[in-house]
Amino acid sequence: MPATSIDLTERARAVALIADEHAELGDSQGRLADPVVDALHREGLFGMWVPKSVPGGAELDPVSSLQVIENLAYGDPSAGWVLMAAALAVGTGAAFLSDAAVSDLFGKPRLPVIAGQGTRPGNAVPKDNGFLLTGSWSFASGIKHGTHIHTLGVIEGTGEARIFVLPVEKATLIDNWDVLGLRATGSIDYRIDNVFVPEGYTHPALIDVPKRGGGLYKIGVIGFAIICHSAWACGIGRRVLDELTKNVRGKMGRSGTLAGSEAFQQKYAKAEGTYRAARALVYETWADVRGTLEHGERLSTRQHTLIRLAMAHVTWSAHEVAMFAYASAGTVALRSGTLQRLFRDMHAGIQHVTSSPPVFQAIGRDLAGLAPGAEWRFLDLAGT
């Protein structure tokens, strides 16, 4: 059942409670628990970025989108990660694919769950109004719950990068997600061998002109990814601090505990400041972007820079907070439990390419005025 703004934000809070309840099960089995996936469908969260003209679509604005993903990531970072990956692929597919493809994919009682990988490309050979796609990809978050795959390929002969959408049964899934954190995302590898994909089930990777939907889609695929990672870091960062204070308050009144430590109180204040300032930058930059989109305009290079800065900054600020919480909580964080899982999930999250050193370097070049005339291409600042 589609909804918008406040409705979806509240629904995300409700699903977060279910995700929290099943987080340990998901962590142990390497996929989200069925009740969590059912709740994501029931509450319409997979449709948050589907255009309103498509059944199940909410076409949620950027700031409300941040709140939805942040709320779910607070309950369980893996659930938040799966939602953000799937919502991106579902929403952009609904906006950019052909009419025939959208009618096929979105003409069923449940929205499709589209998952895959959009950074490392495969090879696509043109053939009969479509392409033969071959390649191997990693980090397909949520694919264990998927109906279709969203994957990047480069067209042989032209070098054009396109996104391909095809049934998950057409791929070979490789169950190799044996990792430190974000275990319940089930971000396994997959392989596609010479599979035909009709052209209508593909779209240019850097497209920002939708076939359906409004100004929201001018941010392109990468813009949605930046919302995702920014919101995820906001959610896990807040949860880490809340778990730490819950542990500390539980020991109040005992001698020699953190509750009575002035050093801890001072460090905790700094951790709160670090987190809150980073989160505020995220919401400030996206509020500015929302205004630009509502006027039907494209983002400036500086706006593109600032949303990348906010994303990378909040991610590493959340990591800093998690390091502080782990060190402060002592054996509580060492043993199996919520704080330990959050610590592991945070360290998995910072491995993502969106917050890597080259991204910071490109951000710095623009902000320092060292890249006149440059434009962003995915995570690269071209023309420098």
Keywords summarizing the entry:
single chain, 384 residues, alpha+beta, Butyryl-Coa Dehydrogenase, subunit A, domain 1, Butyryl-CoA Dehydrogenase, subunit A, domain 2, Butyryl-CoA Dehydrogenase, subunit A, domain 3, 3 domains, 7-stranded mixed β-sheet, two-stranded antiparallel ribbon, 12 helices, 9 strands, 16% strand
Q: Any overview of this molecule?
A:
With 384 residues, this protein is an alpha+beta fold. It folds into 3 domains: 5-105, Acyl-CoA dehydrogenase/oxidase, N-terminal domain (Butyryl-Coa Dehydrogenase, subunit A, domain 1), CATH 1.10.540; 114-204, Butyryl-CoA Dehydrogenase, subunit A, domain 2 (Beta Barrel); 215-374, Butyryl-CoA Dehydrogenase, subunit A, domain 3 (Up-down Bundle). Helix content is 50%, strand content 16%. The chain is built from 12 helices and 9 strands. The protein has helices at residues 5-21, 23-29, 34-42, 62-75, 77-96, 99-105, 220-249, 262-294, 301-329, 331-334, 338-349, 357-367; strands at 114-126, 130-140, 148-155, 161-167, 172-174, 188-198, 202-204, 375-377, 380-382. The strands form 2 sheets. Strands 5-6-2-1-3-4-7 form a 7-stranded mixed beta sheet. A two-stranded antiparallel sheet has the order 8-9. Helix 5 (77-96) packs antiparallel against helix 7, helix 7 (220-249) runs antiparallel to helix 8 (262-294) and helix 9 (301-329) packs across helix 12 (357-367). The longest helix is centred in the last third of the chain and has 33 residues, at 262-294.
